[in-house]
Specification:
The chain is of the alpha/beta class. It is built from ten helices and nine strands. It starts with 14 loop residues before the first helix and ends with a strand.
Length: 296
């Protein structure tokens, strides 16, 4: 391993030895989850499941595996996200391909998906719009869990849509999702309406971007993070535009940061076209999603 202590003649790098060296090394480089990172990277280098590491602690790595692991550890120590290094991330029980063209799916967003499924399940053939789909994690999770739903997904980035389409193929829902490239609602015809509009928009204030962890700040697409001076630029546009594309009593779900709950609920109330405005909390008991119902 690069920067590892000298290896005595005849000694070998086993699974356990590499983990024992990598975990403290990644911790010293600022990783917040060094054991998890090390195990995911080593499983990727060996082409196995993480759980299989535990039953193969004494197995030596092949030379190609060591070379791969050395490169992965070097890149992770330089703050490259694990999900980009291995090329995928689990979300809502599904595996999603990710590249630097898309934001890495996060557990926080599952709060939105859970509520959306509860809204959609009782409906016979609901129409759903995912604005800013990125990897497609919201749209695809809804399509998988709500087989009767008709899903449309929009993103400004064609590269992101290519990743999302590939993920939909992987999960056998490509034929049930319509992909559109454009800015927010721009690709839609004026008479298109949905029972539910969901979005995880950019909502970090521009000045706060530089305070984010290095793996986020340096590697994830800024366009998927930067919400303008107060983090609400895109959210304002979503709130203003959504009523035109919602059926009466249709629902709008927007992911937010915890400190934005009051501001976003005030924006929805001031708009005048929404009822039943509510804030949903994530598993950490932090405000994470705002839900509103179109009047009518």
């Amino acid at each position: 391993m690069s920067d590892a202590p000298p290896t005595p003649a005849g000694d070998v790098w086993t699974v356990k030895r590499i983990l024992d060296w990598t975990i403290p090394h990644l911790k010293s480089q600022g990783s917040e989850s060094p054991r998890l990172d090390a195990e995911i990277l080593l499983a990727h280098a060996r082409g196995c499941l993480r759980i299989q590491l535990y039953t193969n602690y004494d197995q030596p790595l092949t030379d190609p595996q060591r070379v791969t692991m050395r490169d992965l550890v070097k890149r992770r120590a330089a703050a490259e996200p694990v999900a980009y290094l291995v090329g995928h991330r689990e979300f809502f029980g599904l595996d999603f391909r990710v590249t630097k063209d898309v934001l890495i799916p996060r557990p926080d967003t599952e709060t939105l998906v859970v509520d959306a499924i509860e809204i959609l399940k009782p409906q016979a053939a609901p129409r759903v719009l995912d604005v800013g789909t990125g990897s497609g994690c919201i749209a695809i999770s809804l399509a998988v869990n709500c087989p009767n739903a008709e899903v449309t997904a929009i993103d400004l980035s064609q590269a992101a849509l290519n990743i999302a389409r590939a993920n939909a193929e992987t999960h056998s829902v490509a034929g049930r999702i319509r992909w559109l490239c454009g800015d927010l609602f721009a690709p839609l015809t004026t008479d298109t309406q949905f029972d539910l509009i969901a979005s995880n928009p950019p909502y970090i204030a521009s000045a706060e971007i530089e305070t984010l962890a290095a793996d986020v700040r340096l590697h994830e697409p800024r366009s998927a993070l930067d919400g303008g001076p107060d983090g609400l630029d895109v959210i304002r546009r979503l709130i203003a535009g959504a009523p035109q594309y919602l059926v009466p009593q249709g629902k709008l779900l927007i992911e937010i940061s915890g400190e934005q709950a009051d501001a976003v609920t005030q924006l929805l109330a001031a708009n005048g076209r929404y009822d039943d405005i509510a804030v949903l909390k994530d598993l950490a008991k932090q405000p994470r999603v705002v839900r509103a119902v179109r009047k009518g």
